Amino acid sequence: MATEKEISKEGEGEAYPMKGGDGPYSYSKNSSYQGELRNAAKELVTEAIVEHLGIVKFSPSTTIRVADLGCSVGPNTFFAVQNILEAIELKYHLSQALNSEIPEFQVFFNDHVSNDFNTLFLSLPPDRRYHAAGVPGSFYSHLFPSHSLHVAHISTAIHWLSRVPKEVVDRSSPAWNKGKITYLSASDEVIEAYSAQCADDMARFLQARAQEIAEGGLLIIIFAVRPNGTPHSQVCVNIVHDLLESCLVDMAKKGIISEEKVDTFNLPVYYISPQEMEAAIERNGCFRIERMERVPLLTYSGSTEMAPQYLTSKPSTFIIRSAVEGVIKAHFGEEIVDQLFDSLSKKLEDEVSMSELAEKTVNFCAVLKRKPIN
Asked: Are the beta carbons of 50 and 93 closer than 8 angstroms?
């Protein structure tokens, strides 16, 4: 069953699926922050589709094909798709050059082969106005026929690398990341290894999408960023990972896990800067940047009663657990999982203001248009 599968080889790196099913630690029950981010980006995405989707390039009889990459499970993917389809319909209604009816929609839900597609499709909206299909595979690989997509969307997923950089787990490498699980406070060599892996992954991601997206189609990327010029150690989204690292180090000191296990474990996560993203797009050369801007998020300072549940330590821990439990279990075993996240919850409560952290986290939305195809 996919809900218990942690890491699997997929040709293009390794798979790190979110926690499946609908249990208390599942991604479907613990993705409210991601949902709020998508809601915050809704107006920006709608405007971009209405202004930039090149429907005049499409045949009147064309079925509009939309893909949500890294869809995971739960309602967020369905809300994102619905927003996109409504924006496309609005584009057709506002276009004076088109007299044809709005075409049919086909939506592809993509994630790793070990994603819980059973739960995903059991929860498909019964009143949907599109044909649904699942497409298993890494979004760093080629997934669809050439020039077959009109809109591809990915949200809060591009920070997952295809693999941990090989150098950081190589004892003979200057980038060996002994005693750490991220690049947050690591050496320059470790940071360079993560940055190089991200650049390689982005090159493959953009090349795959360039092959798949039709001329005039859009690629929409919503992603957490390291603001330009900001040291990695000051990026808010990395702070929780640093706390998770301290929990593992504490467990190693107590003999619950071995130091060697910690030394050989690294999270395959890297938060790209807008400058790095723009450079990757420029190197690819197949897309024009139509929008690249910060996604506004609601703030909750001074009003804890109005703040969402994810801004308290226990629900925050559930959100983190739903994302990283699989990779933790695969390396350390299932026995430590409950104790690890109990420890993380305590540290979050004692050491971090989750509302302040959420307010300082920076997310961007990039809207890229496929250039003319030679």
From this structure: no
Residues 6+ apart with CB under 8 A from 260: none
Q: What share of the chain is helix, strand, coil (3-state, %, to 5)?
A: 45, 15, 40
pLDDT tens string 206-244: 999 999 999 999 999 999 899 898 888 777 778 888 899
**φ and ψ at residue 351, rounded to 5 degrees:** -120, -10
Residue of 279, 297, 281, 298 lying closest to 289 (CA atoms): 281
* CA atoms of 21 and 371, how far apart (whole Å): 40
Q: Is 270 helix (H, G, I), strand (E, B) or coil?
A: coil
For 111, the enclosing helix (H) or strand (E) is strand 105-111
Over residues 191-211, the pLDDT tens digits come to 999 999 999 999 999 999 999
Half-sphere CA count of 313, side-chain side, radius 13 A:
14
CB 249 within 8 A of CB 183: no
For residues 244 and 35, the model is more confident at 244
Distance in angstroms (rounded) separating the CA atoms of residues 225 and 274: 7
Name which of 140, 119, 131 is nearest 201 in CA terms.
140
For 267-298, the pLDDT digits (tens) are 999 999 999 999 999 999 999 999 999 998 65
Per DSSP, the three-state class of 159 is coil
